[in-house]
Design goal:
With 142 residues, the protein is of the alpha+beta class. It has 7 helices and 3 strands; from the N terminus they run ααααββααβα. A hairpin with a 4-residue loop joins strand 1 (77-85) and strand 2 (90-94). The longest helix is centred in the N-terminal third of the chain and has 14 residues, at 21-34.
Length: 142
């Protein structure tokens, strides 16, 4: 193993010591899989790919593992949102704070028209994906 990989695996285990072992192992599995690729060539990671890499069977526990990987103290993954803009016929990035405000307030609106919509419609419009953080890329290359 390389030094950067060892550092991240150790940080996960130490920083989140009270978490269930399966969740921490899922995080470690994902980081190990990431290091099997050229970090600079990974543009985005989907839920599906991360779930597969985690080795977990429970989607709920997998989500807990994702929260660890996006934790600002670890700086492994960045979370991103996008939605298809029908008027422009393309996908566009959606500000993370906009999404968080809607999820907290439960006042669901279309990100392009700002019209009120149902929770289900909002969830169908918004896509989530992940990217390696710049800090992770920098450390992972050394």
């Amino acid at each position: 193993m390389n030094h950067a990989l060892d550092k991240y695996l150790s940080n996960i285990r130490k920083s989140f010591e009270g978490y269930p072992k399966e969740i921490l192992e899922a995080c470690c599995n994902i980081v190990i899989q990431i290091f099997k690729y050229n970090i600079l060539e990974i543009n985005y990671l989907t839920f599906s790919r991360l779930y597969s890499w985690s080795g977990m069977k429970s989607h709920l526990e997998f989500k807990e593992a994702l929260y660890i990987l996006i934790d600002p103290n670890l700086k492994i993954l960045d979370q991103h949102f996008e939605a298809f803009n029908v008027r422009k016929n393309r996908y566009e990035g959606i500000d993370i704070n906009f999404v968080y405000e809607i999820l907290i307030s439960k006042d669901y609106i279309d990100p392009f028209t700002f019209e009120s919509i149902s929770e289900s419609d909002f969830n169908n419009i918004i896509n989530i994906f992940f990217a390696l953080s710049e800090d992770f890329k920098r450390v992972g290359l050394h």
